[in-house]
Design goal:
The structure holds two protein chains of two kinds. By secondary structure, chain A is α/β, with parallel strands linked by helices. Chain A has one domain: 3-Layer(aba) Sandwich (Peroxisomal Thiolase, Chain A, domain 1), CATH 3.40.47.10. Chain A has 13 helices and twelve strands. In chain A, the strands form two sheets. Chain A has a nine-stranded mixed beta sheet with strand order 3-2-4-7-1-8-12-11-10. A two-stranded antiparallel sheet of chain A has the order 5-6. In chain A, strand 5 and strand 6 form a beta hairpin. By secondary structure, chain B is mainly β. Chain B has no helices and nine strands. The chains are: A alpha/beta, B mainly beta. At the A-B interface, helix 4, helix 5, strand 5 and strand 9 of A face strand 5, strand 6 and strand 7 of B.
Chain lengths: 381, 131
């Protein structure tokens, strides 16, 4: 498999854009990415993409142009963006084409997600009794983690505080007003120990990335970022996942640990080599737990890491430099690619006020979602 | 108290004075709860789950969920958690007769049937009551 590069990245601002459909936000992102790569839609030879709640991606060709390109629709939960990226990467790596596009977009109604039990192979009573909520899963996983590993609520607050601070510096972020620790800690409780401002909210947005072969990168003289690895893993037996009426007594591992390990192995580097990381932060506890699951620190070390500001933009390992899901909101189909967009921005040194100082050579992104799957992408220059 | 109520779903727990949750067990000993519908539920032996366990984790549902939640119109926050039934499985459950502040991971819990609304009953766990 030959190496694949990202040569264009475009984003539609996250948050709420009432006058524009989710798919139109995707089209907007595609046009931004084309502009960034200095290409025309006709140049794209392959596309893959999707959304969870905003329709099929391939309908975009009505707006972008009927060029007869193959367009694979992806419908893969929170890994939709990651799967689109992986599909586009494979199309280029296999030699099927020289220029491919991955796109993700979404538009969700306000308020917590309400999933249909049937779509997840679960009985109706599980939803009726009020136990099938994503927010509960994160609270339940976190409650146990905090007790086992000595994480305080204040540390949860510090994560959200950092998210809003970073969000202020990112043009594409939704929540761009810093918030103090007390306000976060004292905001209305959603699912103990998580209060309102520790959670991301369902939102809207679109992201598109343009991928190219090495040959094309040279030909175009593109400002390219290399894809070192992309790994997507579904859950192993005995892992605790969202929407689980029961689980095994024996802990069998986690999809994030598997995806992370596979991505590091493929890239031939380790967590200590990463310069900046975007980690799934559905709520602030998820960022804490995912720091350890992705191998960046030991369980429990997060308490000290956050107190010392090690994950700040100027810290040893900046995490969620655009404010992550907490500041950008969660359009499920777009989040995975937003993280990659942010990493491309950092690697190219175009982060402006939020640019990580020093030479950024490696960047890591991680998404997690129902019903227990994770996607990791490592980029490098 | 729950005698005139209809279970929220049939086959979830046994119909006896001291009811048990019902699970499926495969030939190699793996336990499934709830018993799966369709092909994956075939060839499983129906077993009774333990009426006592320990608290694995917990939280409180502080906002009224959207449908398919079908609880009482006047929403009252409720406790949920996971209960480890040693040697069997960890099950998600409503938790009753206690408060968030009183719950600690590792505490002993016991199985009960409790009203869900004025027509239906659900299963739950509560801190073990001293005899």
């Amino acid at each position: 498999m030959s190496k694949v590069y990202i040569i264009g990245a475009g984003i539609h601002p996250f948050g709420r854009t009432d006058e524009r459909s989710g798919r139109d936000q995707g089209v907007f992102a595609v046009r931004e990415a084309l502009k960034d790569a200095n290409l025309e839609w006709d140049d794209i030879q392959f596309a893959s993409g999707g959304s969870i709640a905003a329709g099929n991606a391939d309908v975009m060709i009505n707006d972008l142009g009927l060029t007869s390109l193959p367009f694979i629709n992806v419908f893969n939960g929170c890994a939709t963006g990651g799967s689109a990226l992986s599909t586009a990467q494979n199309a280029v790596a296999s030699g099927q084409c020289d220029i491919a596009m991955a796109v993700g977009f979404d538009k969700h109604p306000r308020g917590a997600f309400n999933a249909d039990p049937k779509a997840f192979g679960l009985p109706a009573w599980y939803g009726q009794t009020g136990m099938m909520l994503t927010t509960q899963f994160f609270a339940l996983k976190l409650q146990r983690y905090m007790q086992l590993h000595g994480i305080s609520r204040e540390t949860l607050g510090r994560v959200a505080e950092k998210s809003f601070r970073n969000g202020e510096l990112a043009n594409h972020a939704w929540r761009r007003t810093p918030m103090d620790l007390d306000t976060i800690l004292n905001s209305p409780m959603i699912n103990h120990p998580l209060s309102k401002f520790m959670f991301c909210a369902p939102a809207e947005g679109g992201v598109a990335l343009i991928l190219a072969s090495e040959k094309k990168v040279r030909e175009l003289g593109a400002d390219a970022v290399g894809i070192a690895s992309v790994a997507i893993r579904s859950r192993p037996p005995g892992s605790f996942e969202v929407f689980a009426p029961s689980m095994d007594v024996e802990d069998g591992g986690k999809p994030t640990i598997l995806a992370s390990k596979a991505a590091f192995e493929m890239a031939g580097i380790g967590p200590e080599d990463i310069d900046v990381a975007q980690l799934q932060d559905t709520e602030s506890g998820a960022e804490i737990m995912h720091m350890a699951e992705n191998g960046f620190c030991k369980d429990g070390d997060q308490e000290q890491w956050l107190a010392e500001g090690r994950t700040e933009i100027n810290g040893v390992l900046p995490v969620n430099t655009d404010g992550g899901c907490i500041a950008c909101g969660e359009p499920i189909g777009a989040t995975g690619l937003r993280q990659v967009y942010e990493n491309v921005t950092q690697l190219r040194g175009r982060g402006e006020a939020r640019q990580v100082s020093g030479k950024v050579k490696t960047a890591y992104s991680h998404v997690y979602g129902a019903p227990g799957l994770s996607g990791v992408a490592i980029l490098e220059i | 108290m729950t005698q005139n109520l209809q279970p929220i779903a049939s086959g979830l727990w046994s119909d006896e004075a001291q009811p048990h949750l019902l699970a499926g067990q495969s030939a190699d000993g793996k336990i499934f709860f709830p018993i799966p519908d369709g092909d994956s539920g075939k060839n499983l032996d129906v077993i009774k789950l333990s009426r006592s366990g320990i608290l694995w984790s917990f939280t409180r549902q502080d906002f009224k969920p959207k449908p398919p939640y079908d609880g009482p119109e006047d929403f009252i926050p409720f406790l949920i958690g996971y209960i480890e039934l040693p040697g069997q499985i960890i099950v998600e459950s409503h938790i009753i007769d206690t408060t968030l502040e009183e719950l600690t991971i590792g505490m002993a819990m016991e199985f009960v049937i409790t009203p869900f609304d004025d027509k239906r009953s659900i299963y739950a766990f509560r801190p073990e009551q001293s005899l």
